Amino acid sequence: MATKRKKLIEVALPLEAINRASAKEKAIRHGHPSNVHRWWARRPFASARAVVFAQMVDDPSANPDLFPTEKSQQKERARLLRIIEDLVQWENTSNDEVLSRAREEIWQSWRRTCAQHADHRRARELFDRQKLPAFHDPFAGGGALPLEAQRLGLESYASDLNPVAALINKAMIEIPPRFADKPSVNPEARRSATLLTGKWKGAQGLAEDVRYYGKWMRNKAEQRVGNLYPPIEVTAAMAKERPDLKPNVGQKLTVIAWLWARTVKSPNPAFAHVDVPLASSFMLATRPGKEAYVEPVIEGSGYRFTVKVGKPKNVEAVKGGTKLSRGANFQCVMSGTPIAGDYIKAEGKAGRMGARLMAIVAEGDRGRVFLAPTPEHEAAARRANAEWRPELTISGSTQYLGVKPYGMDRFDQLFTERQLVTLATFSDLVQDAQERVRLDALAAGLSDDKRSLGDGGTGAVAYAEAVAIYLSLIVSKTADSNNALCPWEPVAQCTRQLFGRQAISMLWDYGEANPLHDSSGGLITNVLGHTRGLEFLPSNCIDGHAQQADAATQSLSEGKVIATDPPYYDNVPYADLSDFFYLWLRRSLKPMLPDLFSTLAVPKAEELVAFAYRHDSKKSAETFFLKGMTKAMHRLAEQAHPSFPISIFYAFRQSETENEEGTASTGWETFLAAVIDAGFSISGTWPMRTEMTAAMKSLKNNLASSIVLVCRPRSADATVATRREFAAALKAELPASLANLQRGNIAPVDLAQAAIGPGMAVYTRYDKVLDAEGKPFTVREALALINQTLDEALAEQEGDFDADSRWAVAWFDQHGFADGEYGVAETLSKAKNTSVQGLVDSGILKSSRGDVRLLKPSELAANWDPLTDTRLSAWESVHQLIRVLESRGEAAAAELVAKLGSKAELARELCYRLYTLCERKKRATEALSYNGLVQSFPELERLAKEPGRRVPAQASILVEDEE
């Protein structure tokens, strides 16, 4: 039996460095590997790299012969954490020196492990000191974990039930090492002396060929369908109404986009023959001084669209288009008659929803030129006739597929005829390009071994197939930005992709990009973005393998290191959404990859998500998820390498579902039950800020962090505990874990979520927990008790606050910032050892006419200085920081942090308590302020340390070894 050497991930991580790097990475667009193809829930590469490294490397406590004292262990641990801090930086992603240092640490830990297990009965198989164990992610998705394992020197395996995910992983980890450091084969590269004699590193040669043949495809497509995308000539008649067009008169401008509005017949009987627009906005450009907008002009029994430049007289009316309110509620442009959502749905289902051209966007010498629609351009779009269309039914719930209620039941209905023709042309050209690559590769000297990519080939045939796969992914990406659900962005003045979020949502007015142009939505734009991402893939030539496999039945995990990011209960139906890409990929690649594209659509029945519409009921969906996830977790427990823990990313938002047992979450309960039933215990838990939080507007379904659970097989000698023993252990251990989380600056919105980890670590150390009647204590009951203990721990922290703050917290819990009776306030003040008048004098309370009210942050004194405040309270510090942060920004708030010194830490701690109170009382506005202040604290502390500011004493945020 393998001895469990404690790994770094089970003891310490530099959370703030990982979180900062993850947040920074979210803003990176150019050169990011995610540009290879869209996937909806890819973890940041920084967090994936950190987790895999810390999972592989020994904690110093595992080597007492080398680090015999606690002090020496702490010193070595700090050194390892610095390596992670360097490793997660985006600019170090391809830094050979930083990566080599990390790989050497992995090798050192591995050699020590092999030496320790030299007598193991499977030593030759499991503990070969000359070869690192391989890595596997059975829910590979977008491929961040397999890619970063490969970057760190591990042979990487990725599998996923979803064929789109499997193909993305093939493109990221399997193909590049096969052709690493090889020169380009295209004629242009072979003619160029610079390219010919230059050193090709990693996937650079492959990326250069994808660029070349992608441009070739665009040029060929222009020859075939260019007539569908005519330029627009600016005439003198156009300039008569628009003096700004005079410099362009006589010029034929390239059209960048056509902007359309959906239409239905007017519900007003007098105009029942008119197709009226459903436009959510008439704004074309909103940059100050360069505004442009559409204006409908009524002419007799009809209307036309014209384009105006300059700021509209009624900005709000123009921004509102013909929309009356949220949802499908519009008004008839002819009569003002309301158009109800039910009427629009009925028209859509009857096939009577159309579209009308509102404006044309062309490329001028000095930027965008907005023009009124012309009959010629509307006719050019109408004359397209698609010979091939994807007649694949859109499956799934309208929660994520919002187009279905409006009669859009098939994927071909998401595209205009012109888009279908062009995308099919691109798809056909992939196979033509594949043959050109093969011939050029032969001319460049690649072997004619006739072996395909699937057969392990590295010659001309396999290389041509590899390039074709990347070109197909580019076509698939181009479909994302060339469909009838792409919004027009009036600030950037370009079209956007359909998948701005994890759904196919209804859109009333949309932009149709010119895919033959080099701007947003064009094929070449996607070619360049894709190849920049391809060049950024690892260049260390470590093998990778990707395939389609069901996590519940796969055997790839045997003897491997495992980190994974499984489905989140019922969060997103990836299989339903993936059909959008699958239909285009299948059209191009089925002859090459028949097994991967053997089905007409992405497999859905086996997908491990709990969607009621795929089952008889919500309960049966939950049962399906629990059984399937338990089976998948069992596979991991049985097959994983015995010397390494398993890391699992999980980001399901814990809901506020209350019952007689307390607050719990079905998503978490069901997932954790699967983990526990598989025989795992939790040996570590880490909240990592991996989700986007900019759009957070309420307290429901918003999550800034993933929780990384570190799991080991439960000890064979685990004991049975009573509920009382479990509760006592929680009360003894959870407060310290809570303090660690707060020192790590966990967002308040994620605190309850993160506390599940240390709480379940206590629960899973036991073989089972029994209640007073001797019945097993369920996961749901354990979660409820963890939440209860967390509330108690936060309440106990109030003892650290001053009397004024304790009074304010209690009053805020009951009244918020609303009025309350003076007498009640005075009674409470005596209990808290303060006084109402003292609170008024301190500047946090207003008293008048028998009522009192806490002052809102915006009402607090603007000239407040904590250095001169004779009655300084944590409450006042929090709300003054919020006032300054929200009105004057981080630099000004950092001045206050510098003056507060060590008292700033108490203010930050108070935010957690206040956020919890707000969440319980559904006070979203205040909750967001407390959450925002905590998330800003690392930057405020950094700015506070800059020269010229008073430097506060900073508390350590290192996570200590608790053992």
Core attributes:
alpha+beta, 963 residues
List the helices and strands and how they pair.
Layout: H1 15-26, H2 45-56, H3 70-87, H4 96-116, H5 123-126, E1 135-137, H6 144-151, E2 156-160, H7 163-178, H8 187-191, H9 193-197, H10 204-225, E3 232-233, H11 236-241, E4 252-253, E5 255-265, E6 275-278, E7 283-285, E8 292-299, E9 302-309, H12 315-320, E10 323-325, E11 329-331, E12 338-339, H13 341-349, E13 354-364, E14 367-371, H14 375-382, H15 417-443, H16 460-480, E15 488-489, E16 494-495, E17 509-513, H17 523-535, E18 544-548, E19 561-564, H18 574-589, H19 618-639, E20 646-650, E21 657-659, E22 662-664, H20 666-677, E23 680-688, E24 706-713, E25 720-722, H21 723-743, H22 751-763, E26 768-770, H23 779-796, H24 803-815, E27 820-821, H25 822-831, H26 836-842, E28 845-848, E29 851-854, H27 874-888, H28 890-900, H29 903-921, H30 924-944
Parallel strand pairs: 1-2, 1-19, 2-18, 19-20, 25-26
Antiparallel strand pairs: 3-4, 5-6, 5-13, 5-17, 7-8, 8-9, 10-11, 11-12, 13-14, 15-16, 20-24, 21-22, 23-24, 27-29, 28-29
Helix pairs in contact: 1-2, 2-6, 3-4, 7-16, 10-15, 10-16, 10-17, 15-16, 15-18, 16-17, 16-18, 19-20, 21-22, 21-23, 22-23, 24-25, 27-28, 27-29, 28-30, 29-30
